[in-house]
Amino acid sequence: MPEKTTEKTPENLTRALVDRHLAERGDAIAVREPKRQWSYRKLADEAERIGAGLAGLGVAPGDRVALLMHDSLELVACFIGAARIGALPTPLSTLLRLHDLRAILADARPRVALVHGDLVALADEVCEELPAPPQVVAVPFGGSGGGEHSELSDLLAEAGKCDVHDGDGPAFLLYSGGGSGAPKGVPHDARAIEASFEAYARRVLHLSPDDRVFSTARCYTAYGLGCGLLFPLLAGATTVMLPERTRPRTVFETMAQLKPTVFAAAPSLYAQMMHDLVELTAPRPMPFATVRAAISGAEPLGAELWRRIKDAFGVEMLHGFGSTEALHFFLSFRPGEIKPGASGKLLDGYEARILDEQGRPAGVEEIGALEIRGPSLARGYWRPSGISGVKRAPSPEAAPQVFREGGWLHTGDRFFVDGEGWYYHCGRVDDLFKVSGKWVAPAEVEDTLLQHPAVWEAAVVGAEDADGLTIPVAFVVTNVGYEPNDALGRELMEFVKNEIAPYKYPRRVEFVAELPKSAQGKVQRWRLRLPTK
Q1: C-alpha span between 210 and 165 (Å, rounded)
Q2: What is the Cα–Cα distance from 113 to 126, expressed in whole angstroms?
Q3: What is the CATH number of the domain that holds 479?
Q4: Which helix (H) or strand (E) holds 115?
Q5: Is 216:265 a contact under the CB 8 Å cutoff?
Q6: In terms of residue numbers, what domain contains 332?
Q7: Is the bond into 300 cis (omega within 30 degrees of 0)?
């Protein structure tokens, strides 16, 4: 855990998210689902009762409270309730495999785990093998939300009120899959939240109490937690939660019903929505009719896909790039300042440097490793030494490689910057490879493949041929109406060869049903590089 700072800590996160809105906006809607909604006053009451209940279970300031929950009214209340008493809410992916969930719980060591009912069996199985298992509390899923109190707060509630804890230390804990998929805990304090909100939500999105924000990115990710919970509530706006699985048609229905003004999703979901929109019969929905800002993040967005989505929906997506260690975006498009294919320009308050293989500053348009510095960066990983005996726990080497002297964060990503200050993502540090002595950026080849109508998704990696030389290999998911075969593979190779530098074209095309992705939805190229058995 990072060393404590002697700086004055801002007020408790609960005051910023709900309490300061009660006087003027207490009856305004804070959180909505398709069938339920809570006002700021109701959310504050639920969070206070949940905080008191957690304290009654022995949760003290600094303790972790695991949240293995679907995005919902209860998740928001549990997050704020835990923060209220100085505990660290720790949202966990509902898609984690058993061994990853076990590693994360062993690392976080929560005192209590609040778990939605359909996930309790998984939590119980995992906790059986932990040396210090948390107390698992089953959270009722759904309900009318119209009673005086939720079933959860009735379940946890203790007599009396719950004081707000204003002590020093982290405000919450997030887990990042990282490039290799190994879980790493990232604690953030209230300063980071306020700084990220100022730099992005206020200065780029111009969020206001009049906004209705619908983020399909889940709250266990940094992208989703910012867009879907922290930023809307800090602005006094309404946030829309979708407890169900995120399918395009469900998203269309939710947008038609709740009319968001700000929408956030990963590029892959935008692509799925675009694909499903074509198949819907008339009258087709107009999902973005009320949306003034459409946000894209969590994975690269090529220029061709950006243009396709703009043509399909009539929106100019505000793409951004960030990391769990930085809490949210540090690069972004801005309204009226857009460059398809780029990742964005630096947000106010952030610095960046791109280093070559010798650690020297790279030149303009020269690819190198990106490092950043700014007010929302974490100070280090949670327990950087890891947990012995737990499969895939964080390695002792992780922290010094990432958090560097002078407050710099080594992102693990390769970028170049042009003369106008636009940053371009070229893949992870271990994704880039050389062919014939020249660098190949997988993202460039993938974006070119996406320009072919037969390609739905693509991922490119470097692999050895029979002579031990590195060649580009493309893994392709075909679009509807196209049959994967050798002839199509040859066509795709020729297509890339004719569009970009010939040495970059894939020497082999493998057709797959789907690309391997992390719980955060990011393509895991490292799994494609694994030898086949």
Answers
A1: 30
A2: 12
A3: 3.30.300.30
A4: strand 112-116
A5: yes
A6: 13-145+155-414
A7: no
